[in-house]
Amino acid sequence: MAMLINQEKEAVRAFWNQASCGEAVFLDQETMEGYQTQLQKRYAVEPFILPFANFDGSPGKEILEIGVGLGADHQMWAQGGAVLTGVDLTDRAISHVQTRLSLLGLHSNLQVADAENLPFSDETFDTVYSWGVLHHSPNTGRAIQEVYRVLKPGGAAKIMIYHTWSVVGFMLWVRYALLRLRPWITLSEIYDRYLESPGTKAYTRGEAMALFSQFKTVNITIELSGGDLMSSHVGQRHQGVFLTLAKRFFPRGLIQKWMPGLGLFMLITAQK
Ligand SMILES: C[S@@+](CC[C@H](N)C(=O)[O-])C[C@H]1O[C@@H](n2cnc3c(N)ncnc32)[C@H](O)[C@@H]1O
User: Fold this and answer.
1) Sequence-separated (6 or more) residues with CB below 8 Å from residue 27
2) CA 197 to CA 174: how far, in whole Å?
């Protein structure tokens, strides 16, 4: 069992070591200008990250970010004056964020580490932040227990994980189940096989509440991602002429008006 989980985690690491999240689409050069452009594009497509994280709201507080990726959010935490620690499963992400912060004269304690085995003592952080990460780890429940363990009493977890009932999930199901005449393939299998790293998971609100049940309070909101609206990439595995055409004619206004609850992003704020 442990060996299976290790193999799964190595597959996740190998996937994100090929390219960090958004690298292929948003980062054209590893310079200050390149990283700034990536940051602007990120918040233009997904502006709701800013009020959710509230990067300026914790000067002097101990913040841990799990799964830093290219590091736009990590840069924002550093600029907001947090006492910052960041981890990622891949050397690639850590190296990107070290370069990014040093170009800007910012500081964080960065290291390669696994969300399921955080190398920190109990009750170390005021806030643990993680955007789009824990659903990639084979044992998401264990990672959330780790978040709880390293938070100080009264501290806050701000976590985004994927939501099962999403437009992205439905589109991938049509593409990989219905059009291949295999409608019995479930949404879980679709996320597992076709959205980003192998083994990716998504959760209903009820499942998320259960994952966070040890926390004192839990608040959940759903947001339409750039993928749901086809306003950015649909995971970094999907490209091509059909996708380009579909993006052009996609009824994003209708989806925003009538289906705001069918977003891929589940934003969870939980207090210990
Ligand atoms: C979709 S990217 C998100 C990166 C960044 N948070 C963002 O929003 O752009 C997922 C990241 O999670 C990292 N990751 C996956 N499993 C992890 C784990 N068990 N521990 C730490 N990081 C992990 C990957 O290496 C990758 O950098």
Assistant:
1) 34, 35, 37, 38, 70
2) 20
Residue whose CB lies within 8 A of the most ligand 1 atoms, among 5, 42, 66, 89, for a mutation test: 89
Give pLDDT, residue 236. Answer: 52
Atom 5 (ligand 1) nearest CA: 69
* Consecutive H or E run containing 109: strand 109-112
Q: Is 137 within 8 Å of 161 (Cβ atoms)? A: no
Question: Tokens 């991938």 identify what position?
Answer: 172
Residue 198 in tokens = 């192998």
CA distance linking residue 68 with residue 86, whole number of Å: 6
Rounded mean pLDDT of 46-72?
97
For 217, the token pair is 């309070």
How do beta strands 217-223 and 265-271 pair?
antiparallel
Q: Work out the average pLDDT over 247-266.
A: 87
Please give all residues whose beta carbon lies within 6 A of any atom in ligand 1, as ranges.
12, 16, 20-22, 66-67, 69-70, 87-90, 93, 114-116, 131-133, 136-137
Q: Which atom of ligand 1 is nearest to the CA of 21?
A: 2
235-264 as b/e: b if 16+ CB within 10 A: bbebeeeeeeeeeeebeeeebeeeeeebbb
What kind and span of H or E run contains 128? strand 125-131
Closest CA to 72 of 32, 111, 124: 32
Q: What is the residue-averaged pLDDT of the chain? A: 92
Q: Quick one: pLDDT band at residue 253, thresholds 50, 70, 90?
A: confident
> Domain count of the chain?
1
**Would you state the pLDDT for residue 248?**
73
181 CA from centroid of ligand 1 (Å): 33
Structural domain of 142: 2-271
CATH value at residue 187: 3.40.50.150
